[in-house]
Write a structure and sequence with these properties.
Blueprint: E1 14-16, H1 18-22, E2 28-35, H2 37-40, E3 52-61, E4 64-78, E5 85-100, E6 121-122, E7 127-129, H3 131-144, H4 177-187
Parallel strand pairs: 5-6
Antiparallel strand pairs: 1-7, 2-3, 3-4, 4-5
């Protein structure tokens, strides 16, 4: 059995593909996306602070639908160096296959192999929901948003002063040689 999706999806990422599933290989649908993920995704690991916008294309490929598209939004994070909260842009390039669970013509149940993720199943109402694949991609992108800016100077390890704002008196102290390597790593 496929695991049930526990997280709520986004109405802006659900598409009825019944008509597309009745057409042959090569049939295409294009959609503009505008989804309010800040409201729809209740996820403590992911703070989306702008609407998700972009285009998606659904291509009928044999028994599947190939969803491709480029989507953009903004995520709020805490800087790994200076700890201030910042907002970074993210751009997702989607390329995901979706699989039917019901034959649109006959109404017969189609059992997909277990290796097909629940997130990639088209439901019994022929709704293709991009929510979970988008959420997973956003989590990956969020992990790569590390610093408020590439040259963030961070906090002084001695007194905690935000070195982007100003220097502190610890600056001139000789760095303990045991820390020098760590410092070099940190500065990379
Ligand atoms: Zn920073
Ligand atoms: Zn200091």
């Amino acid at each position: 059995m496929h695991k049930n999706r526990v997280r709520p999806g986004s109405p802006g990422l659900r598409f009825n593909v019944a008509q597309l599933m009745k057409e042959g290989t090569g049939a295409v649908r294009n959609y503009e996306v505008e989804a309010d993920l800040a409201k729809d995704f209740d996820d403590e690991d992911l703070e989306v602070v702008a609407p998700l916008t972009g285009q998606v294309r659904f291509l009928r490929t044999g028994p599947h639908i190939l969803a491709t598209g480029v989507l953009e939004t903004k995520i709020q994070k805490s800087c790994g160096r200076c700890l201030t909260s910042f907002t970074g842009p993210v751009r997702l390039e989607l390329e995901e296959e979706f699989f039917p669970t019901l034959d649109v013509i006959t109404g017969t149940v189609i059992t997909q192999p277990l290796e097909v993720e629940a997130a990639n199943l088209i439901d019994e109402q022929h709704m293709l929901d991009l929510s979970e694949v988008v959420r997973q991609e956003l989590l990956v992108e969020s992990d790569e948003l590390l610093y408020c800016r590439p040259d963030c100077k961070g906090l002084c390890p001695h007194c905690g002063q935000d070195l982007n704002v100003g220097s502190c008196n610890c600056q001139d102290e000789v760095v303990d040689p045991r820390w020098a390597n760590l410092q070099a790593l940190r500065d990379d």
